[in-house]
Write a structure and sequence with these properties.
The chain has two helices and no strands. The protein has 81 residues and is mainly α. The longest helix is centred in the C-terminal third of the chain and has 34 residues, at 43-76. It starts with 20 loop residues before the first helix and ends in a 5-residue tail after the last helix.
């Protein structure tokens, strides 16, 4: 891979793509709070709270989805046989 194709070719992150969510959330939180924060004295605390809220929400949704798929769906629509 040459230097010119770094931004064209996809990275090989098929097995660990979900770890890329963490830096994406961090950078989005920094940018969002830079625009929305009224008092810059609390900026980094608000960024940290936002990161924890977003990642915590994603974890909660993942757990809820896994419960629905692995517990509720087999009870509602059992497989024949």
């Amino acid at each position: 891979m040459t230097l010119g194709t770094v931004f064209i070719d996809a990275i090989n992150a098929h097995d660990t793509w979900y770890w890329l969510i963490v830096p994406m959330v961090i950078f989005i939180a920094i940018g969002y709070k830079a625009v929305r924060c009224k008092n810059m004295a609390n900026y980094w605390r608000q960024v940290l709270v936002f990161i924890i809220q977003v990642l915590g929400g994603m974890v909660a949704l993942t757990i809820a989805f896994m419960i629905v798929v692995n517990v509720l769906v087999p009870l509602l629509a059992p497989m024949p046989g």
